[in-house]
Design a protein that fits this description.
The structure holds 2 protein chains of 2 kinds. By secondary structure, chain A is mostly beta strands. Chain A is 0% helix and 59% strand. Chain A has strands spanning 6-8, 14-16, 23-27, 30-38, 41-50, 53-57, 61-62. In chain A, the strands form 2 sheets. In chain A, strands 3, 4, 5, 6 and 7 form a 5-stranded antiparallel sheet that branches. A two-stranded antiparallel sheet of chain A has the order 1-2. Chain B is mainly β. In chain B, 4% of the residues lie in helices and 46% in strands. Chain B contains 1 helix and 25 strands. The radius of gyration of chain B is 24 Å and the shape is elongated. The chains are: A mainly beta, B mainly beta. At the A-B interface, strand 3 of A face strand 14, strand 18 and strand 24 of B.
């Protein structure tokens, strides 16, 4: 059986996150958002930085 | 029998036991730092080898219930990847497939920078701001690089005079740093030859290490930058070269580096050279 990394989005949808194509946006050289499309919906994770260090990241939020 | 199974189990874990006399005194561990065995019940002098500490790994030894590096200092990292923050002023681009062709009059870069990663900011067209790979010098006014996303588009690049971090942060392993130890960073810079400031800043654990405005370069020449070492007074509190009212609390053991271009006609290059660790 193949192991799949499943994450749960804020709408309860289980996302096979490793098998989805990711698109990134950058701000100040750092990753600002990570987005995937699953079953026609876009899910996005947002990162917060301070002094170049990662402070927090959100869960996967349906857009 | 039980001892035999124990030794077999140790071997499976990358451990070699070469003598027993009641306590484990001659254990030899080979593996990553993170997978090292619990040292709390090991005698002082038990040794091992952490394959991911330093460039070629490091001998480690148990002292007072914790693993410590045998060497007094280790160079933790030496990837010589080149990173370029591009100001983007009056620059245009076209993208076909993943190849991005950028045009800017007298951009000032050379073929020495081939293979570097370059940060391009989008203004018009459907290109999306990103760290492109594979910088390739074409001529004095043109270079190419590779986007992570295939598309066909063209437009103007955006200007970038904001503080921009290089994607080469380094986090020291958990459990490595103890009171009295020091860490330090050094890297290579080069920037467009212009009178405008290109201000490099280094941070450790989110704290700016030197006064704002230092590490400024205006010359198109290679130079080394590195602030004074960060020395730990406890296992979690360190001081920087800037005198403050209290020690800095370590949050993530991570070095980061940024550059701010005063003028969008410029660019700034950085090569991380070494993240050093010095044991007390």
């Amino acid at each position: 059986m193949q192991n799949k990394n499943i994450v749960v989005a804020d709408d309860g949808k289980e996302l096979p996150i490793d098998s989805l194509a990711h698109s990134y946006t950058y701000s100040g050289g750092l990753i600002a958002t990570d987005s995937v499309v699953y079953e026609g919906n876009t899910y996005r994770k947002t990162y917060t930085w301070s002094g170049g260090s990662l402070q927090s990241e959100t869960g996967w939020v349906k857009q | 029998m039980i001892l035999g199974k124990f030794i077999k189990l140790l071997n499976q874990c990358g451990l070699k036991l070469s003598g027993t006399a009641g306590t484990i005194q001659s254990l030899y561990y080979v593996g990553t730092w993170a997978s090292r065995p619990d040292a709390s019940e090991l005698a002082d002098g038990v040794t091992g080898f952490a394959s991911d500490i330093g460039i070629v790994g490091s001998d480690i030894v148990v002292k007072s219930g914790v693993w410590r590096t045998k060497n007094a200092s280790n160079n933790m990292f030496a990837s010589m990847q080149m990173y370029i923050v591009f100001g983007g002023g009056s620059a245009t681009y076209s993208q076909s497939g993943t190849t991005v062709t950028v045009t800017q009059t007298s951009h000032g870069m050379t073929a020495e920078q081939n293979g570097g990663k370059i940060y391009l900011v989008q203004s018009t067209g459907t290109f999306v701001t990103e760290w492109c790979t594979g910088f390739t010098y074409v001529d004095a006014n043109t270079f190419t690089c590779t986007s992570a996303t295939s598309r066909t588009t063209s437009g103007n690049l955006g200007t970038n005079t904001s503080e921009t971090f290089f994607p080469c942060s380094y986090q020291y392993p958990s459990g490595l740093i103890a009171a009295g130890d020091s860490v330090s960073i050094i890297g290579v810079t080069r920037a467009k030859n212009s009178a405008n400031n290109k201000t490099y800043k280094q941070y450790y654990s989110g704290s700016l290490l030197s006064a704002s405005g230092t590490n400024v370069t205006t010359a198109n020449s290679y130079g080394n930058i590195g602030p004074a070492a960060q020395t730990y007074m406890t296992s979690s509190k360190f001081f920087t070269s800037t005198v403050g009212t209290s020690l800095v609390t370590d949050s993530d053991r991570t070095y980061t580096v940024s550059v701010t271009l005063a003028n969008s006609a410029d660019w700034g290059l950085y090569i991380p050279n070494a993240y050093s660790y010095s044991r007390r």
